[in-house]
Amino acid sequence: MTDPLARYHRQTIFHGIGRAGQEKLLAAKVVVIGCGATGTVIANHLTRAGVGELVVVDRDFIELNNLQRQMLFDENDLHAALPKAIAAERKLRAINSEITVRGIVADVTAENIEQLIGGATLVMDGSDNFETRYLLNDACVKHGIPWIYTGAVSGYGMSQTIIPGETPCLRCVFPDVPPPGTSPTCDTAGVVGPVVGAVASISATEAIKLLVGQGELNRGIIHLDLWDVSLEQFPTGVPRPDCPACGRHRFEFLENESGTGAFSLCGRNAVQIRGRKVSLETVAAQIENAATITARNDFLLRFSVPPDYEITLFADGRAIIKGTDEESAARGLYSKYIGA
């Protein structure tokens, strides 16, 4: 009779995991918020490690420049115009058909974050912006769900393991969201691909240790710089009694329900518009004579309009409008071609 854990043999013979640890992994549910550079590496590791249920949430679609560092995607996914969450789900299922993998195409907001992380044993940060991370921190602290922050830019990366009630949360360490333009991003400072893999692998290992209940967890912030060759761990102390989130239980980001709206995507000359659910088929028919459709599938509709705009519309009504960073202009294009 075949051993049901044979796939994980090299992992179960490791003293820190064993068969008991593997059973805990198979019983766990992990939600990965964001499936870009760090998110793809984390999801890949956890799928191969045998996390029983993996949910990947991402709002975006695959672009050519993603292939340099987003390890789950290839040119076929690019040509198919797939959302990242859908492409990731397909790849991860092909890697391990014995676990449950679900990709969700969604923009993470105050309105849906609690539903998205519901029932999770652990939440992993694979996002690319601080607004999402502070929202994630609020939701996880409120519901007592551990989460792991991961960031990579330029030649360095950082990881922080957050266990509500035991370790400082994100707001204990960084009370306020950095003002726009004050922190480097991949679009402004670039990023070296192997740096992403290295720091995301640290976070994935933290996840495995936390889920199996063995090993020494990171109780601070790990800062890894592969370009200048340094690895440091900064202590973060204990949870702050005056922390708005874990000290006072005031979840300001979670309570700021955003509804519909528009915001510029840093460094991309693009604006995201949040709208209401639409029929992609209906929109395709109504724009047929006014736009050039360049991609169309069950998940999105992409079309170009004069003079030089590209609109990618998702079934939930969101649209990413490339060719402008002006929210008012993007709103006008959305209204003109999709509707109010």
Taking strands numbered 1, 2, ... along the chain, how are they ordered across the largest sheet? 3-2-1-4-5-6-7-8
Rg from Cα: 20 Å
**Element order, helices and strands?**
HHEHEHHEHEHEEHHHEEEEHEEEEH
**CATH superfamily label of the largest domain:** NAD(P)-binding Rossmann-like Domain
The CATH topology of the largest domain is given as: Rossmann fold
Largest sheet geometry: 8 strands, mixed
Determine the fraction of residues in helical runs and give it as a percent range.
25-40%
How confident is the prediction overall: mean pLDDT? 93
Strand content: 15-25%
Q: What sort of overall outline do the alpha carbons produce when their principal axes are compared?
A: globular
CATH class of the largest domain reads Alpha Beta
Just name the CATH architecture of the largest domain: 3-Layer(aba) Sandwich
Number of domains in the coordinates? 2
Q: Spans of 5+ residues with little confidence (pLDDT < 50)?
A: none
- Class by alpha and beta content: alpha/beta
State the end-to-end distance.
61 Å
Count of DSSP H/I helices: 12
